[in-house]
Amino acid sequence: MKNMKNEQVRKQILNSFLENLSGIADKEYQRRVWIRGEGPECDDFTDTVCDYFDLEEPIFEDTSAYALTERQKTLIIEFRQMFREFSNNHDFPEEFIDSPEWNEIVKMAKEVLKAFGYEEGKKFSL
Fold first, then answer.
1. Cα atoms in the Cβ-side hemisphere of radius 13 Å centred on 100
2. How far apart are CA 24 and CA 6, in angstroms?
3. Domain assignment of residue 99, yes or no
């Protein structure tokens, strides 16, 4: 029973991680929610950054428990480094959303999602 519960928790963490990443990969979402404040979602760049790093932590603590492929691990490590550096130096989406640096972040987030076979609205399974 404990293993089943742990697996459910891992699935939930991974699904939340990928859902958060899908917001980073979607500029229209960012313009609508982060900049214009239009719902129904209630989110901003700071929340997205905090959620990303909170959700990635358990995944990085035990990548084998999440059955990540080498490609998935490599991509999320690259993305983490890129996103951390960017988010440490930028706070206001209005100022960076059209920058070449942010375009690279968006592109890399899409690549990570693709490596996981993530489709919005569909739950990921381990």
1. 0
2. 27
3. yes
Instruction: For residue 20, give its domain range.
Output: 2-115
Q: Is 80 exposed, middle or buried (0-12, 13-18, 19+ CB in 10 A)?
A: middle
Cβ-proximal residues to 51 (8 Å cutoff; 6+ apart), any chain:
16, 20
Query: Consecutive 10-residue runs of the chain (126 residues): their mean pLDDT?
Result: 72 93 95 90 91 93 89 95 96 96 97 89 53
Distance CA 27, CA 25 (A): 7
For residue 12, being part of any structural domain is answered with: yes
What is the maximum alpha-carbon separation in the chain? 49
The model's pTM is 0.88
**Residue 110 is assigned to a structural domain of this protein:** yes
DSSP state at residue 126? -
Q: Per the structure, how many domains does the chain have?
A: 1
Which one-letter DSSP state was computed for residue 124? Answer: -
